[in-house]
Specification:
Elements lengths: L4 E2 L5 E2 L3 E7 L7 H14 L4 E7 L11 H4 L3 E2 L5 E2 L2 H9 L8 E3 H14 L9 H14 L7 E6 L9 H13 L5 E8 L2 E2 L4 E2 L2 H12 L6 E6 L5 H11 L6 E5 L7 H8 L1 H8 L11 H11 L4 E8 L9 H14 L2 E8 L2 H4 L3 H4 L4 E4 L8 H13 L4 E4 L1 H13 L6 E3 L12 E6 L2 E4 L2 E4 L11 E9 L4 H6 L3 E8 L1 E3 L4 H7 L1 E6 L6 E6 L5 E4 L14 H16 L1
Parallel strand pairs: 3-8, 3-9, 4-7, 4-8, 9-12, 12-13, 14-15, 14-16, 16-17, 17-27, 18-19
Antiparallel strand pairs: 1-2, 5-6, 10-11, 19-24, 20-21, 22-23, 22-25, 25-26, 26-27
Bound molecules: glutamine (GLN).
The site of glutamine has 10 residues, from strand 23.
Length: 561
Amino acid sequence: MMASMPNTTGEFQYMARFVFITGGVVSSLGKGLASAALGALLQARGYSVRLRKLDPYLNVDPGTMSPFEHGEVFVTDDGAETDLDLGHYERFTGVAARNTDSISSGRIYSNVLEKERRGDYLGKTIQVIPHVTNEIKDFISIGEDEVDFMLCEIGGTVGDIEGLPFFEAIRQFSQDKPRGQCIFMHLTLLPFINASGELKTKPTQHSVKELRSIGLAPDILVCRSEGPIPEKEREKLALFCNVRKDSVIAAQDLKSIYEAPLAYHREGLDQAVLDAFGIAPAPKPDLVRWNDVADRIYNPEGEVKVAIVGKYTQLEDAYKSIAEALTHGGMANRVKVNVEWVDAEIFDKEDPAPYLQGFHAILVPGGFGERGTEGKIKAATFAREHKIPYLGICLGMQMAVIEAARNVAGLKDAGSEEFDHEAGEKRFEPVVYHLKEWVQGNRTVARKVTDDKGGTMRLGAYSASLGEGTKVAEVYGTTSIEERHRHRYEVDIRYREQLEKAGLKFSGMSPDGRLPEIVEWEDHPWFIGVQFHPELKSKPFEPHPLFADFVRAAKDTSRLV
Ligand code: GLN
């Protein structure tokens, strides 16, 4: 823990040190990963951290953005739909992200405009400086008295028009704070030119020049490069970008992201950050956790093949947390999990058998809309009949229930209200229905079908009670769990008896017994459907029990074939 500091009135209080992380040259350099790895390294030195993402786009939150375009929507315990970088932050630090850790321009502007309409600004002209920048600064400082370090990543790259208010806000913020309480870390690319065999520093120099023109001077440069940075280039970067030589950190390509904390430590990133804050002597890091993680990821003792039958299979980021949770499940079992993405739509017309044979387990993830759902149902039939481990997540659970209803319980017309808005005409059995009222903690939440699309789902952490003696209770090792949700529709409890008679057990329920949370086939080695998203809580050093056991079941299957 860091020593507390006196405030202006002489009282002692806990004040975070701030690291602002910006990017330059090109996007997709791994800024989120660098931030997350730095968080993990500061923790390894005994400090508490919180990571925050400031996104310049104008959407209020990523909830309504297409997974094809933006990747997965990461949901927090307190029900915020956030950027997938928050998933990285949680996976590396284990610190549960909050609603206030993901801030977009859209949210900032909508707050400012709401205040303007309410008359909070007392008739003043509303401007980017100071109104928008103040709103950003207020967000940045939320919870600053709770941790040793606050790491704030600014989305996009320096020079983007949308990013300007954020850059201006962090500039002001560092001036508002006592000297030495904020540092700036800038991530860039050193391209390698084959013809001359050189790493080029010029784009980085330009990027830093751009930063300095808006009043920000980086203390640390993290440079993405294919190989190590030669001494000559390092000196050049230090000289032209006005940083210390030992604050030029190489970020080389890694085989696994989970080596990032160790790799950044070898390069001296955490030391450079502590030096920049003048913290000496620096506490020694304890890297046992990350050494174990690297050992498990780089030295597997076997391999399993898992098919993910989904809709957004062209962009792997659309199922980021699921892919990561499967990797964690592999680490728990010391096997490498080879994931293959199978487009569910293929099975709308074709028999899944030739595509799914040979896989040791099948996972059907979450999704929205009707496209590909008949294919997902067929994948569930295949897994049930061939006794292949099946994990259905959210929509993947709903499809497994429809499959059971149609093909085992005799409800031939079973379907979901999500795909047919004429349920009233009794054209199908709404086994999955639109939920309009439910209980969260001790309050009732109500929604109308016509409500806005943004933020109208059952979102965030909810508890569930697991039946004694069920497979899931065994897997979790407890009968009381809490998991994160993101959906509008629910399996209808009215079909419970009929489905249980057919062998599909409702093994997890909401505490009030009204909402089915988990189903499992009794006479199947491993067939579980969950209404929530367990992947969001899995970590490399703490694999989620469902994923760990799912991969164990896959490992067992691999031994049989
Ligand atoms: N579309 C389904 C629902 O809204 C499932 C959502 C999901 O898989 N996240 O209930």
